[in-house]
From TrEMBL:
Residue ranges occupied by any Carrier domain in the UniProt entry: 5-86
Naturally occurring in which organism (per UniProt): Streptomyces erythrogriseus
Entry-linked InterPro entries: ACP-like_sf, PP-bd_ACP, Ppantetheine_attach_site
Transmembrane stretches, start-end: none
Keyword Hydrolase in annotation: no
Highest taxon in the source lineage: Bacteria
Keyword field: Phosphopantetheine, Phosphoprotein
Pfam families: PP-binding
Listed name of the protein: Acyl carrier protein
Amino acid sequence: MITTEVTFDELAALMKQAAGITVDPEELKDAAESPFDSFGLDSLGLLGIVGELENRYGVSLPPDSERCKTPREFLNLVNSTLTAGA
């Protein structure tokens, strides 16, 4: 069981690494209900983040992970999956 949670800071770093998009973590947190496309992240970029997280934690994320529309929705799904040890 993984007890760590993916944070807005980590998500912002992954957006930079996987999609080349620089987002301030505080801005991401403050606008957590805004759609990913408002930050310039498309579904392909989100898919890259999903792949990176799966590699990092050795856990398969649900197939609908890349369909999440907002940072909060995505982090809630990822963190519930990680803490469940799926």
